[in-house]
Specification:
alpha/beta; eight-stranded mixed sheet; 11 helices; about 25% helix
Length: about 475
């Protein structure tokens, strides 16, 4: 018994000694550093065409910001506006153009176009603007449908003086996908047209289109309340997605699962992507503004906005623009209550407002659309000066696209996106005579070699002209 106890004691001693030792704490495994996903995986490869120093003088200048200069001069070189004023001197080697009796303006900026996504000819094989397979398709990007050979680009340049445009997905869906801003130049690829540094947009839609498209399939939404419900649920998911990715990008660790649609909505909630919202009725626009406040995003612009004149004060208070037509209304119930003075009323109330096309033909005469607004305003006792009206064609939409620091007006240092008109640009008899994009002469009515023709139309008899 004693021998057994002695053996137990001998065994116990070393065990007690081991128990008394404290192991060194092991450092926690380091979190893997965060690897943010690419915010711009299809970057612009745009390069301006070569130009020459150019002075246009003895011309009436609308600078795009509301100023007018009679007998004015504009000098541009190296793709930028150099000087705007009177009696400017031409540097050595500059091309000098006498604009007597003509007008010079910034190039027109169209915030709402589907060129490239719904190109000419308008056949089913070219119908790439609406991913009408779900009410929310925030994962699609309009740029991935853009066909650079669309003849509409050249016609918008030569007939309409349009130098910059935003291409949007269609309005079948509540969230139709990302938009892209492009320079109106000939290029082989979408990326070579892509406006450098322009923010992306998210195309949203309210009203009849989503509820009609999906309601007729017995899907949600089939009502306006269904529209809002699906939007709110989607924004709630997006907010949760943003929290996960914000945490990961701050602290590292295991990355959350990617969702391409949620990437876009996260960009909206972070203020990186601008909301461009198709909406007609005033009451619906007001609801969308409330929804934006609920989820912490901003509506940059309501497009079409036929009843915007009824809520000019709300738009002004929220810093939300209205992109409108001159007189395109009454073609469905939500567009019924339009008036020709819409744009002028918004402008007079201090709200941000301007013209847009949404049409491959309308984009060729946006200057005439503004002339119609001016006539409606004058008849209503709200005269608008031509130089102020040009802000509705250039600096206004440029601001709503987030590119006004570099284009949209004739200011030294800005892109030389310039149009010389052969008469008063608000006359139906006037056409662009010359169009420069970044100082490069891309269209000249007097030079057949400077008339844009799409590769698609080359060699086709009777096609490719810009009459």
């Amino acid at each position: 018994m004693a021998r057994a106890m002695l053996a137990l004691t001998i065994v116990a001693v070393p065990l007690a000694g081991c128990a008394g030792k404290r192991e060194r704490p092991q450092p926690a495994a380091a979190k893997a550093p965060p690897v943010p996903y690419a915010r711009d995986p299809y970057p612009s490869t745009y390069r301006a065409y070569p130009g020459v120093p150019t002075l246009v003088r003895n011309v009436t200048v609308f600078d795009g910001e509301g100023a007018r200069i009679d007998d004015g001069s504009v000098l541009f070189a190296d793709g930028k506006v150099v000087a705007v004023g009177r009696a400017l001197d031409a540097p050595a080697g500059a091309q000098v153009i006498d604009g007597q009796g003509k007008y010079l303006t910034p190039g027109i900026v169209d915030i709402h176009s589907h060129l490239g996504d719904y190109p000419s000819p308008g056949v089913q094989a070219h119908s790439d603007g609406n991913e009408a397979t779900a009410a929310v398709t925030a994962d699609v990007w309009a740029e991935h449908s853009v066909w650079p050979q669309d003849p509409g680009f050249g016609r918008a340049l030569a007939n309409g003086g349009v130098t910059t445009l935003q291409i949007l997905p269609g309005s079948a869906n509540l969230m139709g996908g990302r938009s892209v801003v492009v320079k109106n130049v000939y290029a082989r690829t979408m990326q070579a047209m892509k406006f450098p540094g322009a923010p992306y947009g998210l195309k949203m839609a309210c009203g009849e289109n989503p509820k009609r498209v999906y309601g007729t399939r017995n899907q949600k939404p089939s009502t306006r309340m269904g529209n809002v419900a699906v939007d709110r649920q989607t924004w709630a998911r997006a907010a949760a997605y943003k929290r996960k990715w914000d945490k990961y990008e701050k602290e590292g660790g295991d990355p959350p699962e990617r969702d391409i649609a949620m990437d876009t909505l996260r960009g909206v909630l972070a203020g990186e992507i601008l909301v461009q919202n198709h909406c007609y009725r005033a009451d619906e626009m007001a609801i969308v503004l409330d929804m934006a406040r609920e989820f912490g995003y901003k509506v940059t612009a309501f497009h079409h906005a036929v009843e915007a004149y009824k809520i000019a004060d709300l738009l002004k208070a929220n810093g939300t623009c209205a992109a409108v037509w001159a007189d395109w209304y009454g073609f469905k119930m939500e567009s019924f209550d339009g008036i020709g003075e819409n744009l002028a009323i918004l402008d007079r109330a201090g709200a941000c407002a301007f013209i847009h096309s949404d049409d491959a033909n309308g984009i060729q005469r946006l200057n005439q659309e503004v002339a119609k607004v001016m006539a409606s305003a004058r008849h209503a006792g709200m005269p608008v000066t031509p130089e102020h009206a040009w802000t509705w064609l250039s600096i206004g939409p440029a601001k709503a696209l987030g590119i006004d620091r570099v284009t949209g007006s004739l200011r030294p240092g800005k892109m030389a996106d310039v149009v010389l008109w052969n008469g008063d640009p608000f006359s139906v008899y006037t056409r662009p005579e010359k169009v420069w994009v970044d100082g490069a002469l891309l269209y000249d009515a007097n030079d057949p070699r400077r008339r844009p023709v799409s590769d698609f139309e080359l060699g086709q008899p009777g096609m490719g002209d810009v009459k």
